[in-house]
Amino acid sequence: MNILKDLKLKKQLIISTYIIVLLMLIIKPTLIQSIVSRIITAFKPFIIGGVIAFLINLPMKLIEEKLLKPICKKYKKFEKISRPTALILTFIIIILLLSVFIHYIAPELIKNIMNLADNIPNYMNELQSYITKNLKNLSFINKISFDIQSIIQKSIMYIGNIINMFISNLFNFTVGVTSFFMNLFLGFIISIYILVSKETLKLQFNKFLYAFFSKENCEKIIYILRLTNHKFSRFIIGQSADGLILGTVFFIVFSLFKIPYALLISIMIPILNFIPIFGTYVGIIISAFIIFMVKPRAVIIFLVLIITIQQLDGKFVYPLVVGNSLGLSPLWILLAIIVGGNLFGVIGMVLGMPLVSVGYELLSDFINERIKKRYN
Q1: Are 56 and 191 in contact, with CB atoms under 8 Å apart?
Q2: What is the mean pLDDT of residues 159-188?
Q3: So where are the chain's domains?
Q4: pLDDT tens digit string along 30-84?
Q5: 231-285, pLDDT tens digit by residue?
């Protein structure tokens, strides 16, 4: 009888909680959003720390498993220090890469952005003059009754405003990152603690799960978390490796052919490539317009080069480096991009694919199990 009473009380508490939450949403819809926002703000260093730990863990795991474990098998006394050694080696590699970026790439990149921002009005005037001059040579244009020059001027001004907005947002983003430094620093410290004691944290989390959930539910939760980790890891490693290869090839080829703003374009396109399908095309369009403003005839060379490189990457590099890591058809990729973008903007577009991939695999497993139970 006591068990039945406890079950009834539990159900009543759950129903009451749902009713209270629903009433709160109806009476004051912004309250939940405000509470969630405050919780995220309070835990921001820990969230950032978790993200940093996840990203650093990818190369650290590779160093630990491929480099240090074979050594530890031969020399057992080094087993205890394998994790700290892997972490230190990972940080050394990251610091070296950051130093190279700060000392060699960042100054040139900032110079390119500043130069482009300062010269946009001049480029616009030159571009307008170039188009107007070339259109006058076409006889059929003179027969058209509407003011073609006015249309060109408005179109160029509109595109110029978009590029100015893009560059100003880039600077705003930089300022935002600078003000974000304290949380980033705290997150970095927290990430070290997470990485050093990840086995202990994993054990504590498992104990918490098994204390409050049934064994079956615990196994399901652990499976979902492992699947999510696997999908995100493969997506980030694959896209980063492909982006690094593409960026390097772009810079070398564009520099050889004297394409304007080669470094800026070589960094921008691989970054936008993280947004599947649309990202690459957006990067190409922006890059083509920047080149067209500075050196109109170089656009054809740029388009030929980038299409050739993308085709070679799609046939040889991408299948090898990334492969079909997410196992999604184009329709599911579009769903991930559109829904993720509408909900969370650019971050939603990037993270939407691995999340949809996890959901897709879980749904497939569930449907297959249902079919087996029904027809076997």
Answers
A1: yes
A2: 62
A3: 1-34, 326-376
A4: 666 677 778 877 788 888 888 888 888 888 888 888 787 777 777 766 667 777 8
A5: 888 888 888 888 888 889 999 999 999 888 888 888 888 888 887 777 788 888 8
Residue owning tokens 């705003």:
172
Q: What are 219-242's pLDDT values in tens digits?
A: 888 999 898 888 888 888 888 888
Residue by residue, what is the 3-state secondary structure of 325-353? CCCCCHHHHHHHHHHHHHHHHHHHHHHHH
Judge contact between 338 and 204, C-beta under 8 A: no
What angle is formed at CA 325 by the lines to CA 323 and CA 328, rounded to 5 degrees?
A: 105
Dihedral of alpha carbons 285, 288, 294, 300, sign:
negative
Q: Which two tokens stand for residue 48?
A: 């950032």
| Residue 128 near residue 153 (C-beta atoms within 8 A) | yes
Q: Residue 82 contacts by C-beta under 8 Å, 6 or more apart in sequence?
A: 64, 68, 69, 72
14's tokens: 């759950």
Calpha distance 184→45 (Å, rounded): 7
Pairwise CA distance, residues 58 & 51, whole Å: 11
Residue type, 257: F
Contact 355, 336 (CB under 8 A): yes
- pLDDT bucket at 170, cuts 50 / 70 / 90: low
**CA dist., res. 279 & res. 287, Å (int):** 12
Alpha-carbon distance of 336 to 328, in angstroms, equals: 10
3-state SS of 258-297? CCCCHHHHHHHHHHHCCCCCHHHHHHHHHHHHHHHHHCCC
